[in-house]
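Batch manifest, entry 17 of 40.
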Amino acid sequence: MRKKPQTFTRNKEYARVLQRETIERCLRHKLGRLAYFGLPSSSLNDVKAWQDIVESFVAVERGEEGKEWELQHDLQLEAFRAQLFTRIILMRGDIDSVILKGKDISNNILHYPFDVISLDYSGGLFYKDRKGTFLRLRAISAAIAAQGKKHADFVLLISCNLSAIDQGEVKNTIENIRTDLTRYGASADQVINSYQKHQRNEVRLKLYVPYLVNQAAAKNHYYCETQQVVFYSGNQDVSMMMFRFCLKFDARTESLRSPKERLSQIINKPMIQIENGLPMETNLQLPKLALLEESRKANA
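Output type: structure tokens
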């Protein structure tokens, strides 16, 4: 039996609105001429919602094992119905493999740069291959590096659920954040302990994913601005998260610099929870990190 076309919740639809706001703010000088690469699903919701600001789309569809052609055919058929067929290039296969290899299973080459890269994963971020490599995390870094070679400003959108989280990877990285903060004189123990002990995985991914992207961005001469992290319930009440980044290329020096975005900015920025299609800011009862200037005044 053919799989029914993918449907989305009100929460997902509002998350898409927030993504568009990020695109419009970060790339306002190119609206209408943008190039997109990503996972729009066979129903092409992203494509339809952004067709007035994006000129061309490279859509990746893997399909279901053993009948991959079905969803790939559905995507092309939906593009034809929506009168978008001539604006969409279909690449076949797993998007992480396409990024890492630079081509799809039909040997179609992935040509950078893009203005919008949308990695709208239906699963989690921590899947490993047989060698133990985090393929999705590696693909995110590889996409940033490929964009950097083209000196291209872009918006990076990442969505994922909370399945198969590698707690060791996440918690060890947050300990690295503690070390970084302490090195710069911040009193971080209370805040970092609150994140490490919190019952919700969302709060740790709020730190982990922006830290990962900022590190990869800095290695490739990018200034990265992290937007408020979003979480919501998706289909079948699956917990979802969405991350938005504006990356601006800056190669004033050949020597690489530390991330321009301060860790305190990432930590202190409230999250957005979407319920019943409506947004609400929340810090999930997490303490804020006192800025260095504030700490000095308090201890004076």
